Amino acid sequence: MIKDYLKVTFRNLVNQKFYTSLNILGLSIGIASCLLILLYVHNELSYDTFHEKAERVYRVGLTGKIAEREINTTTTCPPLAFTAVDEFPEVVNATRVNPYQGQQIIRQGETAIMEEKVYLADSTFFDVFTYKMLEGNPATALNEPNTLVIPEDI
């Protein structure tokens, strides 16, 4: 019985090549789309989940209109972080992180290295995010100027 069904199916596939190709193409596009959506959702849900209390960490963004132009950015005015802590009891802690534009030269004695991916952060950064440190004390490292912390994953 199954053998007869397979024969009829194969015969129809051979006789109707255009519709067979169209169906296979549609099925392939559908499967590929589902896989891409699955990968995107997995990436979004697993991003930075290694931090303690990662489910309580949020990033504040700005959506609006400036000079008749729509904007959507993750950059906000610097005082907003600590204003949110003062004004909203739900906000327990906040920190500000800002990418440094350009190259940064780091010197120690006669040794100098140039870094391109440098971020400036508040002293409260390690109250919000948890990284394992290779060098430096996260509790005091960002309290003074010209200090840095090197995480293990660098």
Molecular structure report:
The protein has helices spanning 2-15, 17-46, 80-87, 125-128, and strands spanning 62-66, 69-73, 97-99, 104-108, 111-115, 119-121, 133-135, 150-151. With 154 residues, the chain is α+β, with helices and mostly antiparallel strands. It has two domains: 2-46; 54-151, no CATH class. It has a two-stranded antiparallel ribbon. A hairpin with a 2-residue loop joins strand 1 (62-66) and strand 2. The relative contact order is 0.07.
What is the element layout, followed by pairings?
Layout: H1 2-15, H2 17-46, E1 62-66, E2 69-73, H3 80-87, E3 97-99, E4 104-108, E5 111-115, E6 119-121, H4 125-128, E7 133-135, E8 150-151
Antiparallel strand pairs: 1-2, 3-6, 4-5, 7-8
Low-confidence parts: none
- How would you state the average pLDDT, rounded? 85
How much of the sequence lies in strands comes to 15-25%
Radius of gyration in whole Å, from Cα? 27 Å
Distance between the termini: 63 Å
What is the global morphology?
elongated
Query: What's the total number of strands?
Result: 8
Describe the largest sheet. 2 strands, antiparallel
Widest beta sheet: strand line-up: 1-2
Count of discrete structural domains: 2
From N to C, what is the helix and strand string? HHEEHEEEEHEE
Count of alpha/pi helices: 4
Label the structural class: alpha+beta
As a percent range, the share of helical residues equals 25-40%
